[in-house]
Every structure is written in C-alpha cells, then in structure tokens.
Amino acid sequence: MPSRLQLNLCGACLQNSPVQETTHSLYIYHGAVRNAVLAWKLQGQDAAILWLLSVASKRLRELIHPDDLLLPVPMPLSRMRKQGQHHAADLCRHIAQHAGCSWDWRVLRRNGEQARQSALSGAQRKKNLRKAFSVDTDYWQQQDELAGRIWVIDDIITTGMTLHFASKALRSTGKKIHALSLTRTVKGG
Questions:
Q1: Are strands 108-110 and 133-135 parallel, antiparallel or unpaired?
Q2: What is the pLDDT of residues 50-97, one digit of tens each?
Q3: What is the dihedral of CA 75, 77, 83, 84, to 10 degrees?
Q4: What DSSP character marks residue 145?
Q5: What's the pLDDT score for residue 77?
Q6: Long-range pairs for 158-161 at CB < 8 Å and ≥24 separation?
Q7: Which of 68, 83, 129, 184 has CB atoms 3.0–4.6 Å from 148's, for a disulfide?
Q8: Coil vs helix vs strand at 27
Q9: Residue-level pLDDT at 79
Q10: Where are the domains of the chain?
Q11: Under a CB-based contact definition with an 8 Å cutoff, are residues 109 and 133 in contact?
Q12: CA atoms of 6 and 19, how far apart (whole Å)
C-alpha cells in the first residue's frame, strides 16, 4: 500500500522554502521497496517497480491531472550512455500512463557533468547541483500552451537538492511546479 507520507517542514525548509509548490513521494525507501529500487537501478529488473506503480495508480490519478506535464530529472549524458537507461524518464513514462497525462524529456536539460549525488554530503549535494539544470527555452516556446501544472519526477529523494534545483530552473516557464518521487529516504528509517 503506498505511503501517504505527510512530512512537516524541517528547519532548513522553514528558512529556505522549497521552489516547488508541493513535494510527494509514493513510498519510503526502506525494506522491500529499497530492494526493488536497487534491483531496478543496478540490475535492470523493473517488475517490482511496475507493481509498486500499479498499486499507487489511484494515488497518482488523485495527484496528477490529465492536463499536467511530467518532466524527468535529467541525468548526465555520460552516465546515461554508460548505464543504457534513464531511470527518471522510465519512471515518468510509467507514471504518465497511470495518471493519463503527458510527459516530455526535452524541456528540462542537464548542464555538464556532476558527481554522483549518492556519494556526497548534503552541503556538497547543494554545491554540486547549483547550476546543473536549465530549460530548453527554444523547445519550450514551440510547445502548445500547457493548461496544467509541471511535475518534476525523480526516483529517490534524499536531501531534496535535485528536485529543488530542477524546479528552480523551471520557474522560467511561468507554470506551477510540483515534485514527485517514487521513494523518499527518512532519517532513522
């Protein structure tokens, strides 16, 4: 059963409000969910992830409207070439199918190469991603007027820095930005 995790704002968020309007996570990154995510990311086994999304289908339809647009957090091109997979884009595609909306990987861009977030501290993550994302303004301007909201999609939220900086880059679209992850880490969990 998907978690309806409602977290209060932490001290850091109270001092520096998140750019996105809301942030949602379907599951807590722990136990069987963690094992499913690791099997998907490290071994390409997506059956458990697809099952988790099907269980969360009703929640996805409650959150995401048909006129909303899902955008995956882009990964560095070299890492995508090496892995042969873009997890956030795959997740976006599956979520869009469940929610009945559209998704696009071309709007939000990754600038340059950054170190892997998983190997960095919270402060290092913030510095690492400060200028990592931008909007392809030429592509965005060619799109039909988006009636709904923009959702930035990622697989795991740890510190929230990736979604923060991706959402910050998307402010130039003039749309309301929301964030959604498959999972979220929780201290002590």
A1: antiparallel
A2: 999 999 999 999 999 999 999 999 986 656 556 667 889 999 999 999
A3: 110
A4: P
A5: 61
A6: 158/117, 158/118, 158/125, 158/185, 159/122, 159/125, 159/126, 160/13, 160/18, 160/23, 161/117, 161/122, 161/125, 161/126, 161/128, 161/129
A7: 68
A8: strand
A9: 61
A10: 17-184
A11: yes
A12: 18
Class of domain 17-184: alpha beta
Query: Structure tokens of 143?
Result: 């799109």
Q: What is the pLDDT of residue 3?
A: 43
Average model confidence (pLDDT) for the chain? 85
Place of tokens 């991603």: 129
Q: Is the dihedral of CA 177, 136, 13, 180 positive or negative?
A: positive
The answer to whether 157 and 181 are in contact (CB under 8 A) is yes
| Separation CA 101–CA 167 (nearest Å) | 19
Choose between 164 and 125: higher pLDDT. 164
Residue 113 confidence (pLDDT) above 80: no
Q: Which residue has the tokens 């510095």?
A: 127
Q: Among 37, 21, 14, which Cα is nearest to 157's?
A: 37
